[in-house]
Design brief:
The structure holds two protein chains of two kinds. Helix content of chain A is about 70%, strand content about 0%. By secondary structure, chain A is mostly helical. In chain A, helix 2 runs parallel beside helix 4 and helix 4 runs antiparallel to helix 5. The longest helix of chain B is centred in the N-terminal third of the chain and has 27 residues. The chains are: A mainly alpha, B alpha+beta.
Chain lengths: ~200, ~130
């Protein structure tokens, strides 16, 4: 594959991730609330951010996140309502935490651990946004519950992401793997792949 | 799950425990940040208005409604209806109210008890 094709494939894959994230984001806002806590959501759309972070760079993943939040909110009909700002805060928080965890943990965390950190940051950011929107400190009382809630949701999303990483064919990540100038450089550059022995080693 | 993941989970649990502990402490130390006001309306007109701090806990309060007298019981920064001449007693079933924005409504007797307060944020609810 030449550089042009690689770029096209990367663009296509990122678009697929953004589209998938958009659908999950919109679908999730149709689901009944899991509990009465503000911000207590499953966070399925985080799978898209997570995969984009794993397979591509933080900058590419950032584009996916922005797209899926904007499009997802438009589809769910909550654009520029308080829920939209909660969404934005949550997505930004979880993206930031997951990106930091992937690039800074140096292999100490698995996808599940990173996902839990993302879920915690998602809930914290939503709580802060809720405080701003409501102009009240009252919501701080939800903090312990939101922290606890992030554990099962983060675990679940991490598990799903792990499954996707395992099941998606190797060719999906080809652009990343063949970005190197020569064939010797055929190792996946993403950190998760470097840590996970279960990923295909064929080249 | 790696050892690092377990550490993350433990750190989250610890933070949650610390947060709930400090919130519990804070809630018990500072009884009320803002003075919470109570209004009583009869037949759409405001009859009485007072602060919780002016009422003594455990006391009772009588209001003349359209049908007769409603009896309110004052608790620790909360209030409830204990007696009402209305037929269905829905107002009594509403139980204690304590948060700004909450109200006890007795439609037959035309009595509305409402808590208004400076920390009333203006939102009915936030949907996600």
């Amino acid at each position: 594959m030449n550089g042009q094709q690689e770029q096209t494939r990367k663009l296509l894959n990122l678009s697929l991730l953004a589209a998938g994230g958009t659908v999950l984001h919109a679908l999730e806002s149709y689901l009944p609330a899991l509990s009465t806590l503000p911000g207590a959501k499953l966070g399925l759309a985080n799978i898209a951010s997570m995969l984009a972070l794993i397979w591509y760079s933080a900058g590419d993943a950032c584009k996916v996140v922005v797209l899926r939040v904007l499009l997802g909110s438009l589809l769910a009909g909550i654009f520029f309502t308080p829920s939209f700002f909660l969404s934005v805060a949550g997505a930004a928080g979880s993206f930031g935490a997951m990106a930091a965890a992937i690039y800074m943990s140096g292999g100490a965390l698995s996808i599940i651990g990173i996902s839990i950190l993302g879920a915690v940051a998602h809930n914290l950011a939503q709580l802060l946004m809720a405080m701003l929107l409501a102009r009240s400190w009252g919501v701080v009382f939800y903090l312990p519950w939101l922290l606890l809630f992030a554990l099962p949701t983060g675990y679940f999303v991490g598990l799903l992401s792990t499954l996707v990483v395992r099941l998606v064919p190797f060719s999906f990540r080809l652009p990343l793997i063949t970005t190197g100038k020569n064939r010797q450089d055929l190792t996946c550059k993403c950190r998760i792949c470097r840590w996970s022995p279960h990923l295909p080693k064929e080249d | 799950m790696t050892a690092g993941d377990v550490k993350v989970v433990l750190a989250v649990l610890l933070t949650a425990a610390l947060a709930s502990g400090s919130i519990f402490f804070w809630k018990n130390r500072v009884p009320q940040l803002n003075p919470v006001e109570l209004t009583i309306e009869v037949d759409g007109q405001e009859k009485q208005r007072f602060f919780f701090s002016d009422l003594e806990a455990g006391g009772q309060h009588r209001i003349k409604g359209v049908l007769g007298y409603s009896l309110l019981e004052v608790g620790d920064n909360k209030i409830r209806m204990v007696e009402s001449p209305c037929p269905d007693k829905i107002c009594i079933g509403m139980g204690w109210i304590s948060q700004p924005g909450e109200s006890i409504v007795c439609i037959p007797n035309r009595v509305v008890v409402r808590i208004v307060g400076s920390n009333d944020n203006g939102y009915d609810a936030l949907s996600r």
